[in-house]
Design goal:
49% of the residues lie in helices and 22% in strands. It is of the alpha+beta class. A hairpin with a 5-residue loop joins strand 1 and strand 2 (60-63).
């Protein structure tokens, strides 16, 4: 139980502060009333699969390695127009036709944007199906996605 709390606190700390050393992480944890050792911190970093990434300021810091939403958004906007051939809908299902081999990458980027009204997605090699809550959701999504193709 204590390990889960400590791991949650570590994740909170690295999101909040630009921590770039085990010693820095140790200090922040001790300030938060966690009694830990350097060996414990080292193990936690390994178990949480933390990596050091370069921030916008050029400094390195611990991170989960997962892209921020702005990183994903910019990747999606770069990938989408170059990979998608057509977008249409029938009822409450949106169909996106992509270049061969690109549907899964586009779908993963699309999923990470959490579009309103989306129930789920599925991608094959060149086609993505998006189940949305209503036909009006489908029409709105197609209209927005088509704007990105210009």
């Amino acid at each position: 139980m204590m390990k889960k709390k400590r791991h949650a606190k570590i994740l909170e700390l690295i999101r909040t502060y630009p921590i770039n050393t085990q010693e820095g992480l140790l200090e922040h944890l001790r300030a938060a009333d966690f009694d830990v050792t350097q060996a414990t911190i080292s193990r936690d970093i390994r178990e949480l699969r933390l990596v050091k990434v370069q921030g916008a300021d050029g400094q390195y810091r611990y991170s989960t390695g997962k892209s921020s939403s702005s990183d994903v958004s910019s990747k999606f906007h770069a990938l989408f127009p170059d990979s998608v051939n057509s977008i249409d809908y029938a009822g409450n299902i949106v169909a996106i036709k992509c270049m061969v081999g690109m549907a899964q990458a586009v779908c993963a980027a699309l999923d990470s944007l959490h579009w309103d009204g989306t129930v789920g997605t599925i991608a094959g090699d060149d086609t993505i199906f998006i189940l949305v809550r209503s036909e009006s959701n489908a029409a709105a999504m197609v209209a927005e996605l088509k704007k990105l193709m210009l």
